[in-house]
Amino acid sequence: MRKYAQKHLAKYHTSKNFLELENILVVCNQLLLIEGKNYLSPADIQRIGSYLLHNTVWSKYNLNLFASSPFLLNSELGFKIAMRIVHNFDQISDLSDNLTIFMGGLSDTVIAFILKKKLDYAQKLLNELKKINLPFYFMFFNIALTLLQKIIDYCHTGDEQPVLAIFDNLIQLNCSKQAQKLLEAFKDVKKVWEDENV
Predict the structure, then answer these.
(1) Which DSSP state fits 131?
(2) Do residues 54 and 94 make contact, with C-beta atoms less than 8 angstroms apart?
(3) What does 163-189 look like in DSSP terms, one character per residue?
(4) Helix 139-157 to helix 176-197 angle, to the nearest 10 degrees?
(5) Residue 19: φ, ψ to 5°
(6) pLDDT of 137-152, one tens digit each?
(7) Structure confidence at residue 96 (pLDDT)
(8) How far apart are CA 60 and CA 108, in angstroms?
(9) Residue 143 CB coordination number (10 Å)
(10) Rg for the chain, CA atoms, rounded
(11) What is residue 178's predicted lDDT score, i.e. its pLDDT?
């Protein structure tokens, strides 16, 4: 992945073709999560952020682009873009197809804010997501939003029991794969917040 990212970033830096940068974003986001290293330059991140901030059409393509970037963007810019998306929710084309990307990308953005210790941004975005009336078949996202609230509460109180209770409930509902994915995110949060208290 690292070689792939470096090769394509070099290609982008030569061509300055924005499409090249967009195509490598997912890999750079994953490398940041795996290695803790950001392969994008500040100028690369600024270009992506500027494009998203001034975007007016939240197509599947643009939603995917944002969903690939919450850990790369600085918190202030990520928050502004996330709020633009939330406040233009009704204007998103092909909403039924995009709802999973919409909720998944914005939920990841809440986690990114928590990991960056920007709980005010995390809580404000989460409050907006809770206002969205999701179809019943998106029940998992309601559970995920509840879990995110418990994780924010954990960051304030240090009490992990309410978070662990949700994992137990997910396993009882036969959602062990989803529980495992969310548990990994919680472990990352615990590491960040416990390191601060050492």
Answers:
(1) T
(2) no
(3) HHHHHHHHHHTT-HHHHHHHHHHHHHH
(4) 20
(5) -60, -35
(6) 777 788 889 999 999 9
(7) 63
(8) 16
(9) 18
(10) 17
(11) 77
The low-confidence residues of the chain, meaning pLDDT below 70, are 89-97, 196-198
Q: How far apart are CA 10 and CA 6, in angstroms?
A: 6
The CA distance from 140 to 188, in Å, is 21
What is the C-alpha to C-alpha distance for residues 49 and 69, in angstroms, rounded to an integer? 9
Q: Cβ–Cβ contacts within 10 Å for residue 28, how many?
A: 25
CA 4 to chain centre: 23
Residue 198's pLDDT is 41
What is the C-alpha separation between 174 and 38, in angstroms, rounded?
A: 36
Q: For tokens 């084309």, name the residue.
A: 93
- Alpha-carbon gap, residue 173 to 31, rounded angstroms: 32
Residues 15 and 34 sit within 8 Å (Cβ to Cβ): no
User: CB of 146 within 8 A of CB of 166?
Assistant: yes
Residue 86 is encoded by which pair of tokens?
């939330």
Q: How far, in Å, CA of 26 to CA of 95, rounded?
A: 22
Q: Tell me the whole-structure pTM to 2 decimals.
A: 0.86
Q: What is the pLDDT of residue 175?
A: 78
Those residues whose C-beta lies under 8 Å from the C-beta of residue 66, and which sit 6 or more positions away, are: 52, 81, 82, 85, 105, 109
